Structure formats: structure tokens, C-alpha cells
User: Fold this.
Amino acid sequence: MKNAKKTVAGTWRIASMEVWDADYFDMEVPAHITIRNDLTGEFQFGLVKGDLDARVSMTEGVARLEFSWSGADENDPASGRGWMAVTGDQARGRIFIHQGDDSAFTAVRVG
Assistant:
């Protein structure tokens, strides 16, 4: 599992989202997801930001991160879940806002 953790750890720049365009997801800061070695981290896109707690698995050479998160959506408390599959320096996933929207996303490793 150590290799899977190394595969997902780092800072990921959200490059595209299914539901929102770059005008929204980059409105405050460049949209990103950061995963630390202990599988905690944070993310922000648009006015949605949160802290996450993750688990990682490896299937057929692809690291898959599954996480829950809590934080805020336009300063209102929010929470949810998501996943991210990592191949090299590319990732794709989906983030869910509890009782709200969900969106697929793509990301690239930047750090």
C-alpha cells in the first residue's frame, strides 16, 4: 500500500470539471486537491473547500483514492465524498456535495 500512497500524494491541479467551467472553479484560487502522505488533505474549487480524509487501494496498476470531506460551500457548512483514480501524473474522479451537486473532474500533478 506504500506505493499506492506515494502515487496519490501531492498537489493536483483540477484541469476540468463536468458541471462547472474554469470561470467558476478557478474564481478564488486555482482549483486543486492536495493529498498528504498520511492520506489527509484539502481541496478548493470555486467557493467550495474542505478538508479530506482518504483511503487508497490499488487495482490493476491504478491507484484509487476514496475520501470523505467536510468544509464549506459559499461559507455554509458542507460535506461530502469523492474518489480519484491516478495513473502517472494524470487523475480523474468525481466529487459529491452531500444533498447537492456532484461533478466529474480531471486533474494533473503539480507538486
Summary: The helical segments are 2-8, 22-25. The first strand starts at residue 10 and ends at 17.
